Backbone:
């Protein structure tokens, strides 16, 4: 199947999740053409990296207005990439941008759309089947996508990308006829914490809950995160009380994460919290209550006071 | 101002998910308005008061969803529409909503960022594309002045402030408004509010459900003491191989 992958960059480098998407695309293509569309500013040398993950051709859309990552024009640009390449399958890594782009693109190119996909497709007997995470991580469903065109968004850690020796990538520019209303949203301001590891991209996450008693106690969580190179997260009450910013809130009504390691400190493990984090590969729980439900969903646990355990864990990591 | 709020009918978030005969086992499950849709509805009801808006709730579902629709009416929607069909997939649902919106000229189409059952997160974008409108997702604040809305949209690691002219679609999440609990008067009034049942249009559906499964349970949790963090670090390195 001829495949198109949408590649997102952040500050001039390709996002890790987009590298996963490129590798996913080349596995799903089974030897057929893999084309990428790039709408962010990226040097050709950085784009060349995609060759190692199976991308043969890159269609670059250069338009200053796309730097703000507007949803509707980017959907138009990807649709133009589909027309140019003749791709049947479009792959995107989930992000706040692609979550909004995928359904629009699906309508534009009359495709079957599957979001939140967690593994490579099965393509036996001419049927294209993908596994989606549903009920906020509490179950999975296998769905067959019919028709000529398909769009899928993949969850983090759906594949483990393996680089091959660098192969050359053919870079061409793509002209796009944007729609009249594509640019009808005006961006007034962006408030972003620079320098932090982005939570949805993070491979290691340190998360804390109401057990920390107050926002003034977060420095030990930040120290642990910094030592690991992890992102920080929190439970819903913590962001509701404004102890931490909303974009750190994970769970049923927050961000869903699937890192390799999730460390939960002073979080009870309510079903709505677990919903957003249970697909993490390894879970460590630190809680003073040995009956806390989170221990039933953990791989490693420490019953103890966070104020005692967390500094000791940070110290042990520094010494290891 | 006319506002349409799209309501999903989903299992309560405390539900234990099970399947039988290749379908969700709803035995003993209670159903609610999707938590994100509940935020959208709460904001719509606030706008009703501040902007003299009328609020219509819409649900695509069979008659078993009517208690959920009545709850939306009790919270403050003025009337409701039920499109009489199983909500087969996002495209099917979006087609129904767009079909109704085409003739009704809503100024605002609000819904949750995703339904908490099948987590598609596609209906807002599809409806917007079908109607040639913008969709703002996930929308965390929404204020309207004249014909222009100012909104906060969550992005990775932060948020952006944007403006957009009406009409448009928004997929809402907290803290756009606080969930509203219906009061006695609301519940009484809801019984008399109009709930129109309409037939579904039949688009070609491209997605077929094959089978369901549950994630594997985690094996026993290995315990460590706070004085032995070196052993935990070793386990994370050598056993779990995650650091
Ligand atoms: C529709 C709905 C959606 C929801 N969505 C979410 C969601 O997305 N995310 C989410 O997180 N929640 C969500 N919730 C809320 C959820 O039900 C819980 O209330 C919440 O997760 C509890 O947060 P917590 O674990 O931080 O606090 P608590 O439940 O209060 O737990 C605090 C824990 O800290 C421990 N503790 C206290 N002191 C210490 C100490 N000194 N050292 C170590 N441990 C200590 C306690 O033993 C306890 O286990 C939702 C609820 C509903 C109804």
Residues:
């Amino acid at each position: 199947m001829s495949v198109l992958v949408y590649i997102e960059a952040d500050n001039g480098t390709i996002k890790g999740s987009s590298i996963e998407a490129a590798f996913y695309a080349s596995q799903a293509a089974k030897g057929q053409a893999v084309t990428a569309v790039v709408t962010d500013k990226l040097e050709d040398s950085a784009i060349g990296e995609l060759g190692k993950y199976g991308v043969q051709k890159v269609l670059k859309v250069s338009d200053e207005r796309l730097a703000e990552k507007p949803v509707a024009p980017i959907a138009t640009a990807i649709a133009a990439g589909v027309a140019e390449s003749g791709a049947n399958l479009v792959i995107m890594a989930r992000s706040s941008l692609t979550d909004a782009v995928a359904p629009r693109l699906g309508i534009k190119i009359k495709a079957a759309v599957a979001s939140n996909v967690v593994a490579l497709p099965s393509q036996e007997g001419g049927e294209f089947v993908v596994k989606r995470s549903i009920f906020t991580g509490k179950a999975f469903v296998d769905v067959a996508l019919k028709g000529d065109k398909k769009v899928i968004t993949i969850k983090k850690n759906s594949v483990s990308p393996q680089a091959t020796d660098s192969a050359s990538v053919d870079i061409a520019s793509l002209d796009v006829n944007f729609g009249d209303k594509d640019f009808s949203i005006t961006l007034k301001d962006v408030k972003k914490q620079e320098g932090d590891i982005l939570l949805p991209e993070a491979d290691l996450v340190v998360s804390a809950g109401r057990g920390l008693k107050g926002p003034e106690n977060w420095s030990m969580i930040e120290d642990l995160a910094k030592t690991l190179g992890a992102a920080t997260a929190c439970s819903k009450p913590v962001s509701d009380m404004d102890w931490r910013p909303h974009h750190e809130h994970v769970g049923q009504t927050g961000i869903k994460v699937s890192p390799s390691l999730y460390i939960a400190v002073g979080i009870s493990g309510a079903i709505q919290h677990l919903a957003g984090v249970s697909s993490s590969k390894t879970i460590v729980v630190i809680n003073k209550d040995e009956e806390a439900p989170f221990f039933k969903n953990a791989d490693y646990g420490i019953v103890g006071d966070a104020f005692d355990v967390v500094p000791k864990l940070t110290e042990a990591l520094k010494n290891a | 101002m006319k506002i349409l709020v799209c309501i999903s009918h989903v299992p309560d978030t405390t539900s234990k998910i099970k399947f039988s005969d290749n379908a969700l086992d709803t035995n003993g499950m209670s159903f609610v308005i999707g938590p994100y849709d509940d935020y959208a509805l709460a904001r719509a009801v606030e706008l009703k008061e501040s902007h003299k808006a009328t609020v219509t709730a819409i649900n695509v579902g069979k008659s078993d969803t009517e208690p959920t629709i009545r709850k939306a009416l009790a919270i403050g929607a003025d009337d409701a529409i039920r499109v009489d069909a199983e909500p087969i997939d996002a495209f099917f649902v979006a087609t129904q909503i767009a079909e109704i919106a085409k003739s009704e000229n809503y100024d605002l189409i609000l819904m949750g960022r995703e339904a908490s059952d099948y987590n598609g997160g596609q209906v807002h974008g599809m409806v917007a594309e079908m109607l040639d409108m913008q969709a703002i997702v996930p929308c965390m604040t929404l204020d309207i002045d004249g014909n222009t809305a100012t909104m906060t949209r969550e992005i990775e690691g932060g948020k952006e402030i944007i403006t957009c002219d009406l009409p448009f679609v928004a997929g809402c999440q907290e803290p756009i408004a606080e969930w509203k609990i219906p009061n006695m008067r609301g519940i009484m009034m809801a019984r008399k509010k109009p709930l129109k049942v309409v037939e579904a249009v039949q688009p070609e559906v491209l997605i077929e459900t094959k089978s369901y499964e549950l994630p594997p349970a985690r094996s026993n949790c290995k315990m460590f003491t706070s004085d032995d963090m070196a052993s935990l670090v070793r386990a994370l390195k050598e056993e779990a191989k995650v650091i």
Observations:
- The longest strand of chain B covers residues 135-145.
- Helices of chain B lie at 35-51, 66-75, 90-104, 123-131, 184-190, 229-239.
- The pocket of flavin-adenine dinucleotide is lined by residues A 209-211, 235-238, 251-254, 266-268, 270, 272-273, 276, 287-289, 292, 305-307; B 13, 35 (CB under 6 Å).
- Chain B touches chain A through 80 residues (CB under 8 Å).
